[in-house]
Amino acid sequence: xxxxxxxxxxxxxxxxxxxxxxxxxxxxxxxxxxxxxxxxxxxxxxxxxxxxxxxxxxxxxxxxxxxxxxxxxxxxxxxxxxxxxxxxxxxxxxxxxxxxxxxxxxxxxxxxxxxxxxxxxxxxxxxxxxxxxxxxxxxxxxxxxxxxxxxxxxxxxxxxxxxxxxxxxxxxxxxxxxxxxxxxxxxxxxxxxxxxxxxxxxxxxxxxxxxxxxxxxxxxxxxxxxxxxxxxxxxxxxxxxxxxxxxxxxxxxxxxxxxxxxxxxxxxxxxxxxxxxxxxxxxxxxxxxxxxxxxxxxxxxxxxxxxxxxxxxxxxxxxxxxxxxxxxxxxxxxxxxxxxxxxxxxx
Length: 347
What we know:
Blueprint: H1 4-7, H2 9-26, H3 32-52, H4 67-100, H5 106-126, H6 132-149, H7 151-166, E1 174-177, E2 180-187, E3 191-195, E4 201-205, H8 206-211, E5 214-216, E6 224-233, H9 238-251, E7 262-268, E8 272-281, H10 287-312, H11 317-323, H12 326-329, H13 333-345
Antiparallel strand pairs: 1-2, 1-5, 2-3, 3-4, 6-8, 7-8
């Protein structure tokens, strides 16, 4: 007890509070573990200073102390509870950080609010010697009235807690909620913010996001589909068109080999045959560029196929007449030759 530290315990405790606040602001946020160690050490020293000054956070300040000393002691004792609540909150954040990835702060905020609420009630009961039971009863009535008044907001808050716990999406994921599609920018207490493809910001209440269907395009994150719909005239044989589409898919280097790209016939009409082309890319950001590239490659392949098909047919007058009828263009070469012979015999 001969050290200057114990000579002025209340002043030392006040200095420790100032040091804690200064270090917390000075240290970089990414040094969270270092900040936690510093806060734990300072909290232990702060507790030792209070005990050495004849104070206990579990009892009121002695009434026979002088007014300035009594006020300072009361403030420091209440600060002990808040200091402990903040230290416990930071400790919980460090423990939860590997699980939440440092991006979902809603659970941290809720947990911190609960800890500070308990610390405040404890400080009021132990330090200020207030009737906690009456305070809790009054607070309960006020909480019920307040809850009824902000029922929708509380629904959004608790839905946000559920979303943070289940994690159907995270910040930077590309999702679709109902008919709204965009990139997740922020998840706060009440809503989820999406940046749409048009560059606008969509704010979705958490209660709505928790109740509706959510499609997360970023999971799994190893491939994303690119689908094109192609319509061609029925005069081109589907086998030739499918062969051209497959060559176009093979010519696109940005498409993944697995899952393998494919081209299928979707439906056929009297004049139009609809085809669907599907491929996969590694990055969602490349989908538009790959779609444009595929359209260009498909156009080249189909143009080449159509040219070859026309060149393979005899350039006779009878063949030209047959080509004017869409239904007759799909005839086989053998049938076309027989038709040409019969048409030539009509002269």
